[in-house]
């Protein structure tokens, strides 16, 4: 499991005990963390006047798999720190420049967090279930999860999957009650607590359907799921004046699932996707590089 200590704090804490080469790398990073998140291995090595292997070893010393993983975690920790500082201001960002910066940081934070939580085995297992499902019902409630569930239908139906989405609590229960072996529920929930989602998962699973949930482990929804693709969102209450950024993490997971399924079904759906593109050409002319149906 990943060390919960901030990567930035760890560098500062261990700095006095580092050897000369590692201290030189840490000094460059801590001098301008924002700039360091955009440096290549070669560029950082040059600024620190050390070798590239030294930079890679430094990243591993910090508990990362390599320099790419190190930069992702560094960007995440930096974004988190900046966001909490922003949240503590008495006056929210109001100018176009400030808002653009804060929204960008929030987006980067959400994506970095989702990537750091990635569970490749869970993603592959979920793709396997959805790929073989007779029908897929995409559920979510609330502004973020409901929209992502709708996007899941949009992503999956073009891969020749019988996918549909609803955010209606009554329909979710009814659909769950009519599901059975061979069917799958794909549920998105930040909290894993909405009653309609938990009830639907329990009902459908009891009838033999598979339940794949993109939610936080240990939640009621997770407890009634066949498979959980883990995604823990940040505390949103501090950022009440900004749109919920958790949806970026949900979309990251959804795109991973859709890409995995697309790779599995490419041979069987390629001709159908080509025909779909031709219908769009007939509708409004050449789509050139436009994605099919987007």
From TrEMBL:
The SIS domain sits at: 126-267
Q: Give the UniProt keywords, A-Z.
A: DNA-binding, Transcription, Transcription regulation
Please indicate which superkingdom the organism of origin belongs to: Bacteria
Quote the Pfam families the UniProt record gives: HTH_6, SIS
Pinpoint the HTH rpiR-type domain residues.
5-81
Show the GO MF annotations: carbohydrate derivative binding; DNA binding; DNA-binding transcription factor activity
Q: Name one GO biological process term.
A: carbohydrate derivative metabolic process
Identify the PANTHER family for this entry: GLUCOKINASE, HTH-TYPE TRANSCRIPTIONAL REGULATOR HEXR-RELATED
According to UniProt, the name of this protein is Transcriptional regulator, RpiR family protein
What species was this sequence derived from?
Chelatococcus daeguensis
């Amino acid at each position: 499991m990943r060390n919960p200590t901030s990567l930035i704090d760890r560098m500062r804490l261990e700095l006095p005990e580092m050897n000369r080469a590692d201290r030189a790398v840490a000094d460059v990073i801590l001098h301008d963390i924002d700039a360091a998140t955009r440096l290549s291995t070669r560029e950082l090595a040059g600024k620190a006047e050390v070798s590239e292997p030294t930079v890679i070893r430094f990243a591993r010393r910090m508990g990362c798999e390599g320099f790419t993983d190190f930069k992702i975690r560094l960007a995440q920790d930096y974004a988190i720190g900046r966001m909490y500082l922003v949240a503590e201001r008495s006056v929210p960002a109001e100018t176009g420049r400030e808002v653009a910066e804060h929204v960008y940081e929030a987006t980067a934070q959400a994506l970095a967090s989702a990537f750091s939580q990635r569970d490749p085995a869970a993603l592959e297992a979920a793709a396997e279930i959805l790929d073989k499902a007779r029908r897929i019902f995409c559920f979510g409630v609330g502004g973020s999860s409901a929209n992502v569930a709708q996007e899941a239908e949009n992503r999956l139906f073009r891969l020749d999957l019988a996918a549909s989405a609803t955010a209606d609590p009554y329909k979710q229960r009814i659909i769950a009650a009519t599901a059975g072996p061979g069917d799958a529920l794909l549920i998105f929930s930040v909290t894993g607590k909405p009653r309609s989602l938990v009830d639907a998962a329990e009902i459908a699973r009891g009838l033999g359907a598979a339940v794949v949930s993109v939610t936080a482990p240990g939640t009621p929804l997770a407890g009634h799921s066949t498979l959980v693709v883990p995604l823990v969102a940040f505390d949103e209450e501090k950022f009440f004046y900004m749109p919920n950024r958790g949806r970026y993490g949900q979309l990251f997971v959804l795109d991973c699932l859709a890409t995995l399924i697309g790779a599995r079904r490419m041979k069987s759906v390629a001709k159908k996707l080509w025909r779909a593109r031709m219908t769009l050409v007939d509708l409004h002319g050449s789509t050139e590089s436009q994605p099919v149906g987007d």
